[in-house]
Hints:
This protein is of the alpha/beta class.
Amino acid sequence: MTVVEITDLSDPRLADYSHQTDVALKKARGTEHGLYIAESALVLQRALAAGHRPRSVLALGNTVDEARALVGEDVPIFSGPSELLEELTGYLLHRGLIAAMHRPALPSAPALLEHARRVIILENVADPTNVGAIFRSVAAIGADAVFVTPRCSDPFYRRAIRVSMGTVLQVPWTRLGDWPSTRKLLATAGFQVAALALSADAVSLRDFAAPERLALVLGAEGEGLTADALASADTVVQIPMAHGIDSLNVAATAAVAMWALA
C-alpha cells in the first residue's frame, strides 16, 4: 500500500491514534478483541514476532522505510511531520513510529500451566509501570507465564508495554478468576503457592526451599496482598531487609524473588 501523507487530522482512518485512551482502544470498532499501541520499531518487531497483527502504522518521515520493512506493503502507513503527529496523538513520537495492533485472544490458564514450572501472579497491581517492569524481569530472569487478577492493570496498556520494552508481547499471560477457583486450578496442575508479603510467620527467601512447580504471588504496593490471596498460599515468603527497610518496590521484589528461585 502507498504511504499516506497526513493532511487532515479528521481523517477517520486516523481515529486509532487520535488522543485515544487504552480503555477506548480495547473497545475499538472493527476488532474482535480491541487494539493496543506498540511504540518504536523494536516493540513492533517483537509484536510481529509474537504473531500479532498490525491494523496500521503511524510514522515520522524518516522511519517510513523501516516501518514498511517490518509490516510489508499490505498495512497502511500514515506519515507526517512531528508537530502534526504530536497534535494528532497528544504526545511526541520520539521513537519514530507507533502501530495500532490487534489484541490477540488470551490463552487459557490451564494451557499456560501445563508445561510451566515457575509462574508469577499479580494481584491488583494497578500501576502499569510496575506491571511492565515485572514483565521485563520475567523475560530476562525467567518465569514461564504471568497471571493477573481482574483488578490488575492491563499488561497491554501503552505504558506497560513501553516500560517492558515489548516483553509483555513475548511472555505468555492471561487473566484469572477469583481465588477459590485459582487455588483449585493451581493445585490441579501440581503448583505450590508462595505469597510475597510482610508477615510474622513469613519464611525468609534465603531459607525457602522452592518446589518443582511454584506460583509466586505479588500484590499492590501499599495495600499488599488480600486476605484471600494469603489464605490461598501454601507459604508466605519475605525478602530479608537491612537498615530498617521493610520492603522493596513490587517490581524489584519480583526480580529478586525470581533470581533467588531461578
